[in-house]
């Protein structure tokens, strides 16, 4: 090791002393405001630079002590180097400047235990500890096992999973087990967070009192996803899982069928206005759509249809604008309602900020994940 904890702490003290002097000379004051310990994993220097930009943007809502680990276990002889920097927001003259701080640890040819022994003493006491694991197989990395005992939240991005269906099941299993024991660990997935516009627009249909009964009479669901990149398949599965977990739908035996890139999920739902225990079939179709630069977070369309009692159709579709979606509601006996809704893509910093505001387990995500994983297991058998 070419660095030690005492040297890093001295560098942090010198950093803030110099920063205070420079701020005073510039005519403003600086406030060091730390609200969370954010541990970030990257496997290359280039990726670390990209993630570092996100950390700087995050300072606006969550000033933090970030520890960026560049993890390169196969890169030659064991060596660890570290350096520090301040992440400050640009501000107007005379205003207080808010700053966080970042410790970058470049580990080459080493083991997770060496890195963790350096990171743990550098955590700010009494602040939550969040690990952001960027990579295709985050649950297999030794670093996660070594840090498990101090973590409050784990953030991953299933859009980058190497084997989407297999890794979705792995994530669901990990999420379920992580809530057992004396120190529960809450899990967040940025790929799920990108579904927020779709879930909000879908829920808004049924804020209308006259449309609400049709929510419990849905018989068909079609989700068009972008098959190339951006985790579209997993987003489609999690959107289906969200519907199923909230509406009490269950996957039928041998009910998951895949033909090429198209998936049919045969489910059953509780009957409405019938004898207790009565069920009706629900078909969910996940199908690939042509790739488009304007595809809203990996999906291009969602169609819901109720044919039980009264014909009703509800749809959310992307438009030519990347910031707008079109929603259409067609119910027998009612005029068609069509509108353009704002549905912007959130950047990674905004997605992270939203997840960091969660103080406990996201039960909606948990239920949707477990339902989606059940479908993924059935597809893998």
Number of helices: 11
Q: Helix amount, in percent?
A: 25-40%
Q: Strand share of the residues?
A: 25-35%
- Overall 3D shape: elongated
Topology pattern, helix = H, strand = E: HEEHEEEHEHEHEHHHEHEEEEEEEHH
The main pleated sheet reads as: 8 strands, mixed
Radius of gyration equals 24 Å
Number of strands: 16
What does this protein structure show overall?
The structure is a single chain. The chain is α/β, with parallel strands linked by helices and 381 residues long. The protein is 33% helix and 31% strand. It has eleven helices and 16 strands. Helix 2 crosses helix 10, helix 5 (164-178) crosses helix 11 and helix 9 crosses helix 11 (363-380). The longest helix has 22 residues, at 5-26. The mean pLDDT is 89.
Short description:
By secondary structure, the protein is of the alpha/beta class. Strands 1, 2, 3, 4, 5, 6, 7 and 8 form an eight-stranded mixed β-sheet that branches.
């Amino acid at each position: 090791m070419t660095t030690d904890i005492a040297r890093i702490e001295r560098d942090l003290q010198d950093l803030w002393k110099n920063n205070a002097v420079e701020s005073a000379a510039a005519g403003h004051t600086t406030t060091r405001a730390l609200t969370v310990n954010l541990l970030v994993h990257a496997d290359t220097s280039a990726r670390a630079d990209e993630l570092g930009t996100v950390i700087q943007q995050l300072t606006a809502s969550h000033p933090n002590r970030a520890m960026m680990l560049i993890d390169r276990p196969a890169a030659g002889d064991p060596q660890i180097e570290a350096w520090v920097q301040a992440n400050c927001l640009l501000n107007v003259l005379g205003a207080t400047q808010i700053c966080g701080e970042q410790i970058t640890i470049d580990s080459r040819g080493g083991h997770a235990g060496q890195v963790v022994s350096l990171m743990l003493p550098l955590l700010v006491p009494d602040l939550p500890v969040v690990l952001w694991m960027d990579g295709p197989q985050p649950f297999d990395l030794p670093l996660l096992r070594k840090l498990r005992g101090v973590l409050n939240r784990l953030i991953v991005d299933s859009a980058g999973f190497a084997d989407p269906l297999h890794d979705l099941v792995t994530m669901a299993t990990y999420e379920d087990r992580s809530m057992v024991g004396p120190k529960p660990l809450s899990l967040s997935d940025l790929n799920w967070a990108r579904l927020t516009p779709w879930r909000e627009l879908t829920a808004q249909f049924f804020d209308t009192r006259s449309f609400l009964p049709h929510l419990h009479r849905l018989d068909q669901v079609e989700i068009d996803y972008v098959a190339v990149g951006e985790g579209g398949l997993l987003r489609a599965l999690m959107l289906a899982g969200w519907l199923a977990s909230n509406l009490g739908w269950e996957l039928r035996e041998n009910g998951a069928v895949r033909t090429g890139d198209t998936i049919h999920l045969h489910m059953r739902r509780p009957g409405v206005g019938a004898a207790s225990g009565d069920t009706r079939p629900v078909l969910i179709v996940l199908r690939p759509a042509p790739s488009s630069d304007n595809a809203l977070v990996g999906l291009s369309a969602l169609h819901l249809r109720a044919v039980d009692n009264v014909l009703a159709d509800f749809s959310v579709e992307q438009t030519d604008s990347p910031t707008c979606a079109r929603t259409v509601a067609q119910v027998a006996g009612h005029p068609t309602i069509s509108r353009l809704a704002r549905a912007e893509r959130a950047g990674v910093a905004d997605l992270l900020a939203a997840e960091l505001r969660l103080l406990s387990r996201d039960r909606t995500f948990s239920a949707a994940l477990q339902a989606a994983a059940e479908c993924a297991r059935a597809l893998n058998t």
